[in-house]
Amino acid sequence: MTLKLVIVGGGSSYTPEIIEGIIRRHDSFPVTEIVLVDVEMGKEKLEIIGKLALRMIEKANQSIKLSWTLDREKALENADFVSTQIRVGGLDSRAKDEQIPLSHGFIGQETNGAGGIFKAFRTIPVLMELAEDVHRICPDAWIINFTNPAGIVTEALLKHSAHKKVIGVCNIPYNMRHSTAEMLDAAPEDVKIEFVGMNHFVFGKKVYVKGIDRTADVLQKLVDGLDYSPANIVNLGWTKEFIDSLKLLPNPYHQYYFQTKDVLEKDLKAYEEHGIRAEVVQGLEESLFAIYKNPELREKPKELEKRGGAFYSEVACSLMDSIYNNREDIQTVNTLNNGAIPDLPDDAVIEVNCVITKHGPRPLTVGPLPHTVKGIIYQMKAFEELVIRASITGDYNDAYAAFVMNPLIADEKRSKAMLDELLEAHKTYLPQFFNSRGN
Amino acid sequence: MTLKLVIVGGGSSYTPEIIEGIIRRHDSFPVTEIVLVDVEMGKEKLEIIGKLALRMIEKANQSIKLSWTLDREKALENADFVSTQIRVGGLDSRAKDEQIPLSHGFIGQETNGAGGIFKAFRTIPVLMELAEDVHRICPDAWIINFTNPAGIVTEALLKHSAHKKVIGVCNIPYNMRHSTAEMLDAAPEDVKIEFVGMNHFVFGKKVYVKGIDRTADVLQKLVDGLDYSPANIVNLGWTKEFIDSLKLLPNPYHQYYFQTKDVLEKDLKAYEEHGIRAEVVQGLEESLFAIYKNPELREKPKELEKRGGAFYSEVACSLMDSIYNNREDIQTVNTLNNGAIPDLPDDAVIEVNCVITKHGPRPLTVGPLPHTVKGIIYQMKAFEELVIRASITGDYNDAYAAFVMNPLIADEKRSKAMLDELLEAHKTYLPQFFNSRGN
Amino acid sequence: MTLKLVIVGGGSSYTPEIIEGIIRRHDSFPVTEIVLVDVEMGKEKLEIIGKLALRMIEKANQSIKLSWTLDREKALENADFVSTQIRVGGLDSRAKDEQIPLSHGFIGQETNGAGGIFKAFRTIPVLMELAEDVHRICPDAWIINFTNPAGIVTEALLKHSAHKKVIGVCNIPYNMRHSTAEMLDAAPEDVKIEFVGMNHFVFGKKVYVKGIDRTADVLQKLVDGLDYSPANIVNLGWTKEFIDSLKLLPNPYHQYYFQTKDVLEKDLKAYEEHGIRAEVVQGLEESLFAIYKNPELREKPKELEKRGGAFYSEVACSLMDSIYNNREDIQTVNTLNNGAIPDLPDDAVIEVNCVITKHGPRPLTVGPLPHTVKGIIYQMKAFEELVIRASITGDYNDAYAAFVMNPLIADEKRSKAMLDELLEAHKTYLPQFFNSRGN
Amino acid sequence: MTLKLVIVGGGSSYTPEIIEGIIRRHDSFPVTEIVLVDVEMGKEKLEIIGKLALRMIEKANQSIKLSWTLDREKALENADFVSTQIRVGGLDSRAKDEQIPLSHGFIGQETNGAGGIFKAFRTIPVLMELAEDVHRICPDAWIINFTNPAGIVTEALLKHSAHKKVIGVCNIPYNMRHSTAEMLDAAPEDVKIEFVGMNHFVFGKKVYVKGIDRTADVLQKLVDGLDYSPANIVNLGWTKEFIDSLKLLPNPYHQYYFQTKDVLEKDLKAYEEHGIRAEVVQGLEESLFAIYKNPELREKPKELEKRGGAFYSEVACSLMDSIYNNREDIQTVNTLNNGAIPDLPDDAVIEVNCVITKHGPRPLTVGPLPHTVKGIIYQMKAFEELVIRASITGDYNDAYAAFVMNPLIADEKRSKAMLDELLEAHKTYLPQFFNSRGN
Fold it and tell me: Which residues of the sequence carry a binding annotation for substrate (chains A, B, C, D) (predicted)?
């Protein structure tokens, strides 16, 4: 019996992490073949990663067949799982997503605001194509989508592609659970958070340790200044009044929405001083690949942890293992709402605790949105629908609507210049916009 | 540390089963005290059961303190779990529920049609009082409601009592799972059925074995004539056309709704030949208690299995064990919908797969009702709401509405005589109706 | 400026009524051209009606151009309104709809139960074709659908045809308003009934006279035995208890659902004594056409009123007049729910008070379904959806589901024989079923 | 027969307008008695207005009995209509609502942002008391609520007071209809706008002239720079892209939400140059009352039109006339949603076209929210619910939640100082906050 994993975007600097996860779980999740796929532009990195991965497998002394290729269709044959971790346009595009909005006086961030919208615009068409390929070539395979904005991308695929076996993953819920465990001095496996919301806009509603409600304790810790922000975004802390009003655990990305001015000031200052985050990441990447090249290196190097997306591999490997083994354990993934949050559409993708089975994730009901955040969550979901619509239609008006309805933009006069500049900057990766406009 | 279980209706002939279950699970669910409670009318039976239970515990050599009493309030002190298995008015009342409708030319059945309505009318006020006692005396205790009509009763308590820790259980989903396992030659623990609907009106939507969809096979078996009806109700089989139209697993009680004429004819004939089911049960009960009295008997006797409610104990003990141990396993119970079936009200009680935790059951989303049965399920739920309303208000018009909106009655002209006769027959147990009418 | 009306099924015995209505309203609704269209089978009747209509117009001395034809496409050119009053299969088919179910022990009625389902099966495909023709040839024309089952047919067209300008009409709300006015000794134009439900399953929620709530008075009159049943269906009266429970005005067709046994007994007896209704109607029709032929007849004859569908013309002419003149008055029609009854789907067709404008009917909100009838109304709507689905797919299982989910059938064992006999009997008019089954 | 109108806040400078409206409509709406009511603080103005009103009635030579009083309970006896146009705390309070937010760098406006929230906080408790008085003293009277924020106030009364005959009115829809008529060179009575949303957040979805859809023409006019802003708020125009994206008519208040930065800059500049709007209004008021005092003045002076609220009287008088005469015409008012917009709660108050009857307004269904604005409308409604909750509870956390969830604030760090300053500034009028906090 075979168990084949295809990693799309295999040349990513994160790949060694997922390779390590596969190796570690070999007993319960016995992968027999891994194919790393990437595009022409990432050919060199792909080869570096491929060779490192081979050395890692060799060291682990496991019989996993590993190869790398630019031929995606070939790679997909007989695949059981397809993980995606792509970055359309690479770090250059990310740099533009961060820089252009900032230069217009708006938040410039990889997955939020105008930058996040454009990341979706570039990514969705590419992953739509992948999903159609998967549906044709290996229709029983699960797509495990790491690619950001993970929730929006997953909703786009589930709504608009023929392939319905798509699950989105993110490390934020994992981080929140682990940080909360630390706050409470509990084992992470004993901690459960009831989440409500969407990817990068999820709140924690209740925290249980071994089934006992510890929410109040965690909220107090947050007021006391403990936090669980990952390395890659700001961390300005929360006011007591905010936490007391919501009685919910915010996630770090909520800072963009409730501390917009402070974050913007800080980002503008940081930009002047250090340049944008994408450039920092670019530097990190270069040194990582320098390390990866070392033929003596036969394991995931410590330096990788400095990169933001820690635990992605853990999240993805756990998920694939539970599907494969029909474990029926509870994991937090991005999947169809289907009534879990009655206020949101049944076909919306939410980030929610699910029982993971061989036939996919089954959400646990969350119940109505908490009254304090129901408006903003609903609006963000409606905004996401606008982004998906524009990603598919390539219609300028649809894109404009997404801009003015985004809470971090919400400016019908200033949107035009910023939107036009971003469209021009990312032109190469936005065929849907430029073909439909007759250019 | 103590773990106290109170069994309300402890004099029931089912009690030895639950005692056996407790004994068997002692390692993982270490009950330290059991109190059997009953009412004056059941005093003698209570003592017989109590003594048998003591002998069973003694034989098992376990340190469980067991006692019996008519003083409910005292019994509830420090309780962790309160299970209910009462029969207000006893088998005499059941006999009237079966006989009177039949004599009017309608289905006479314990939990369906006019009989089921009156069972609810008698039961809900008594369990409302219990719930208020629990809320006052042992507010952290879970009420595990066995008492039929289990779904309606559970919804009444969750809507109208202050105590919100109430879970309803029934053996039908358990039976369906086990019968299905047998059909498929699979281990019951490997079989999962996705249920949709309410207690005694639940359908099986999908059958999975180790996560693999086997629904089509089970439907074929049903067409081939295999069935899973319990001993206590009719079993007329299903037509190929019905199964092909629905593509769902009906439960045995659906025969009352889709084979009404045949069931009625059969029941009328059986009534003429053997009398009603309640009388048969009465005979069974008498011989059971004769056996229970035997001081040599130190275990649950084989004869108990002839009684209809097999596996109730298994269902209840599994549930309490999983709550106690925060097992997060999946069980099928009656709890608040909360969006699991978006077409039904959030505060409706449905029979649904739940993750069982220390803080209660968390339903898995079911999604929209299947199009073929959405009408009848919605109507049955609306009918149940009418029953609950009338049970609480004691208003004659509310009761009349429940009668004419029940699919097994649905007769605005013939309802009056039947309703009036049932009200008179059960007068002693219906204070809400007779006080409110000024009698 | 022209104003052209096409009457599809122009050979119907009802046509003189609509012609009379058009003549009477000529000042405000100045029709310039009428074309009567019918099928080959109705050619002779069409000519009789055409000639009578010509004489009526001549007598009224109006400049309306009237013609008749079998060429529907030609007739539709430049039409402004298309009214439909067809009977696929004629009275022969109706006779089968009434007789076959009765012979199986079920209600046999033109628009309810198995007969109503088959009327839908025969009618929907024919009107779908008409709607597509209208959409292609005269896309701005309104289809005013008289054809029964009017609600189901209208929903089928609005859901499945490209033409969205379709309104269904029925005389039941009109009758209820006029009978109520009579009960209250008020002018009909001063009476408003708030309706809730669907065609032939509509309830009156509130009765206002000049804006004053008179509901209680009307309910009392109903209890006292006054009623408003049209000539063509039974009239068994309502019990005080039923009216007191519902606090709603039932419509005459509700007798089939809440007095099923009595109606069935009565219909079976009447069938034995006088044959079925369709045969009575056949006789009426023959004598009507004999009268129509009389070249001296230059107006609608009194005898027409004995036919069941009185006031249809009034209802249709008022509607067309208000659309044409953008009157913004309130009329009760069958149109998309769109939230008027939040419990029902937005795309369901309901019978509801609407403001009538040039751009169509705009429903007034009704609010949530009354708690007593919400179950049965929801179920009937879900049943209607099954009928529509089967009408379109021609799938045997879909038809079977409609049968077992109809409250007047609800018998999974006895449905097969009745369904099969009806399919065979109506074979000529059910291409969708026989092609899809490979016959 | 009597017809009595009570004007609460009768000392308002707007009162002469409503008096003029009453006089003008005397034939169809024959008011027999008017009582002007005000509070101690407004005593002097009340007398000036009362005397002017007397002179106006005398000039019109009508038999309307007019009086003024501070005794509200006495005034309410036998009232048929109670109109409210109060300003709790007067223009001084308004000045603080405008000034304090501006000084914190946020929009300072009478009915939007922090200022609007505080206007609600001051007004709701006062009108709750009025509603309870009305319910006790003249339970059949309609409350016609002019008082801003009119939608929020009306929802608060309908949700939390016993009196359910409450309708909110605003001149924005009236203005939009009249301005649109002007744009299209049509008579205002021929123009209908389908509105969607809430008071001060309403969009025009469709514009019909005599039933013909003219929406596209109006949108083009808006792009061309025509607008319909009232005198009292900014008018910055709309970009072509915004109008093209939404395909809806915004209302002038939408500028605060989609041109926040520009409005804020402009307001800050205006504040520096001319002071705040409240001070301008204060000046206008003073000169108005100087004119009103003139014993020769016997009609509404032209100068009143410079005040912002033009047409309020027209709106209110039309509404009362249609209720009184059961006109069944269509007017745009604030009333319970009841499904008109299925996405919003049934008990939300929306601004919607209604048929006006003696038994109240009946909304026409609007249908699902347009996809571009559904998020922001839903959020604004959820925000309004937070404001109402805080107005009733007086809970600091509830107020904080309203602040951070308002799109014009949305700043969890900067909210505290602004909220605290506003609470302190308005302390006298916020007993619910200061009692509940134990001050």
Answer: 94, 148
| Residue B2 DSSP SS3 | coil
B109-139, pLDDT tens digit by residue?
Answer: 999 999 999 999 999 999 999 999 999 999 9
**What pLDDT is recorded for position B3?**
98
Question: Residue D122 in contact with residue D429, Cβ under 8 Å?
Answer: yes
Is C253 among the catalytic positions? yes
Give the tokens for residue C337.
């729910």
For residue C139, tell me if it sits in a domain: yes
CATH number at residue B120: 3.40.50.720
Please write the tens of the pLDDT for every residue from A70-125: 999 999 999 999 999 999 999 999 999 999 999 999 999 999 999 999 999 999 99
Physical contact, C and D (3 or more Cβ pairs within 8 A): yes
Of A208, A328, A368, the CB nearest to B330: A328
Instruction: Enumerate residues 6+ apart whose C-beta is below 8 A from B293.
Output: B48
Q: Contact, A7 vs A35, CB < 8 A?
A: yes
Query: What pLDDT does A309 receive?
Result: 57
CA atoms within 13 A on the CB side of D63: 4
Instruction: Count up the domains in chain D and report the number.
Output: 1
- Does the pLDDT at position C387 exceed 60? yes
pLDDT for the residue A439: 39
- Average pLDDT for B327-337: 98
Give the integer Cα–Cα distance in Å for C354 and C335: 9
Using alpha carbons, select from C383, C425, C68 the residue that is nearest to residue C199.
C383
Predicted pLDDT of residue A179: 92
Judge contact between B391 and B122, C-beta under 8 A: no
* Nearest in space to B99 (alpha carbons), one of B270, B222, B256, B219: B270
Burial B282-298 (b: 16+ CB within 10 A, else e): bebbeebbebbeeeebe
D195: closest CA among D383, D340, D385? Answer: D340
In single-letter form, the type of residue at position D325 comes to N
D419 within some domain: no
- CB hemisphere CA count around B311 (13 angstroms): 14
Cα separation, D345 vs A343, whole angstroms? 10
Identify the pLDDT of residue C278. Answer: 79
For residue C221, which phi and psi values (nearest 5 degrees)?
A: -60, -40
The residue ranges of DSSP E strands in C109-158, in sequence order, are: 142-145
Q: Which residues of B touch C389 (CB under 8 A)?
A: 371
The reported pLDDT for the residue numbered D307 is: 67
Tokens found for residue D399 = 């107020």
Query: Phi first, then psi: what are they for A374, rounded to 5°?
Result: -65, -35
C328 in reach of chain D (CB within 8 A): yes
Residues of D within 8 A of A236 (CB-CB) are 413
Asked if D261 is an interface residue toward chain A (Cβ–Cβ < 8 A), one would say: yes
Residue B41 within any structural domain of the chain: yes
pLDDT at residue B233, as a whole number: 66
pLDDT at D389: 98
Q: Which domain holds residue A408?
A: 374-436
Q: What ipTM describes this predicted complex?
A: 0.95
Q: State whether residue C325 sits within 8 Å of chain B by CB.
A: no
- pLDDT digit string, tens, across residues B274-312: 887 778 888 888 999 999 999 999 988 888 776 655 677
C314, C300 contact by CB (below 8 A): no
Q: Residue C336: which of C167, C131, C147 has the closest Cα?
A: C167
Is C148 assigned to a binding site?
A: yes
Cβ pair D124, D384 in contact under 8 A: no
Tell me which residue of D339, D325, D327 sits closest to D367, measured CA to CA: D339
- B155-188 in b/e form (b: 16+ CB < 10 A) is bbbbeebebebbbbbbbbbbbbbbbbbebbebee
